[in-house]
Specification:
383 residues; alpha/beta; Rossmann fold; 3 domains; six-stranded mixed beta sheet; 44% helix; globular; disordered N terminus
Length: 383
């Protein structure tokens, strides 16, 4: 019989053992038909780590809130939770090869002699995949090998260009009555009533503008952010959209042409040869004013989704940055500020640049991991 882990009654399993039990529970939910994704699993583990595994009711509610996608999943969730954590006659298996898990209601008694008895339960061996762990790692803390793996994972980010309505209409199966088409169809039938034609306002992709800070304080995030910009550019070109990318630091550099190269490695090499101020200082106010005067005010930012990626360390006058952000917010459809430090524990927006810009931003989100880049892509697509 394999080695076992014994937990005294009333005590919570160790952190490692608790994670194994909870991960195995999410696998059982998935086998029962609940669409448990990796992101939901990560949220469930995070919620339980805050609430504590010893509180069964809190764990139950945390799972319902993070693992269930809709009302149809609640009944299955209740059944699997009851079977997994409260079964006294042995855990029902979704697969015969899986071992049983310790329960809340009846944990095995400790062996006073230090040995493992026959009634001891085998610990479930389940671990989050390396890929899932890498998705939530801070990209600035990764080794070169991990960055190489991460580069291949950018293709998994789902991107959908944001859409805007056009002045022209197009034929549709519902919407407003198209009087002209309906009348022409009736005339072709010599005045006999014809089928009513419908129309709706046409849609087309909305322009996206990316302003990426490549100063010294952002050097650890520059490569992944430009890979993300390359991904945005390629998907937009495939779907008829437009993405314009600039780097900001001590000066403004237009990178769109370099990022149009299909191969990401060649595109990043071309971008590196174009940008003259890698790891320099930050003059966000001045570079943003230059962008608005030369490109943005003339139409590039007008009605566009503008994404500013910076940690907010401003060497110039914060009041100038606030004024330029106010100008940008007036002409753009939506302004999104992405701060790599936003998702770190204990972060507070105390930098002068962030404090000056926040009143003129529609969204303020994190940008330190692949998971947060996927969240950014979703925010942009809904803009």
């Amino acid at each position: 019989m394999s080695s076992t882990t014994v937990v005294p009654p009333g005590e919570v399993p160790t952190r490692h053992g608790a994670d194994e039990v909870l991960l195995a529970f999410t696998r059982a939910l998935r086998a029962a038909g609940v669409p448990v994704t990796q992101d939901r699993t990560h949220g469930f583990l995070a919620a339980v780590s805050v609430l504590g595994l010893g509180d069964q009711r809190a764990t139950y509610l945390a799972g319902r809130a993070t693992l269930c996608a809709g009302p149809d999943d609640l009944e299955r969730y209740d059944q699997v939770f009851e079977a997994w954590f409260n079964a006294r006659d042995g855990l029902p298996r979704t697969r015969p090869a899986q071992p049983a898990a310790p329960t809340f209601s009846e944990l095995p008694a400790a062996d006073t002699d230090g040995g493992a008895g026959e009634a001891d339960e085998e610990v479930v061996r389940a671990m989050a995949s390396d890929t899932e762990v890498l998705r939530h790692r801070d990209v600035a803390s990764m080794s070169p090998a991990e960055r190489a793996r991460l580069a291949g994972m950018f293709a998994t980010i789902r991107l959908r260009p944001p859409l805007r309505r056009t002045a022209r209409h197009q034929a549709w199966h519902r919407g407003d009555i198209d009087a002209s088409r309906t009348l022409r169809a009736s005339l072709r039938r010599l005045g006999e009533p014809a089928e009513i034609a419908w129309r709706r306002r046409g849609v087309r992709p909305r322009r996206v503008v990316l302003l990426v800070d490549v100063s010294g304080s952002m050097s650890g995030y520059a490569d992944p952010l430009l890979r993300l910009a390359h991904r945005f550019t390629q998907v937009a070109r495939e779907r008829g959209g437009v993405v314009e990318t600039f780097t900001v630091g001590t000066r403004l550099t237009h990178l769109t042409r370099a990022l149009r190269l299909r191969d990401p490695e060649r595109a990043l090499v071309a971008a590196g040869e174009t940008v003259p101020d890698w790891s320099g200082g930050t003059r966000l106010g001045e570079t943003l004013r230059f962008f608005l005067d030369r490109w943005g005010q003339r139409g590039m930012a007008r009605g566009a989704v503008v994404v500013v990626v910076s940690d907010g360390w401003e060497r110039g006058d914060p009041s100038l940055l606030a004024e330029q952000m106010r100008r940008l917010h007036r002409i753009a459809h939506r302004v999104i500020w992405v701060n790599p430090h936003r998702g770190k524990e204990g972060y507070e927006p105390v930098q002068q640049g962030v404090l000056a810009a926040l009143p003129h931003c529609d969204d303020f989100i994190a940008g330190h991991s692949l998971a947060t880049y996927a969240e950014l892509a979703e925010v942009v697509s809904r803009a």
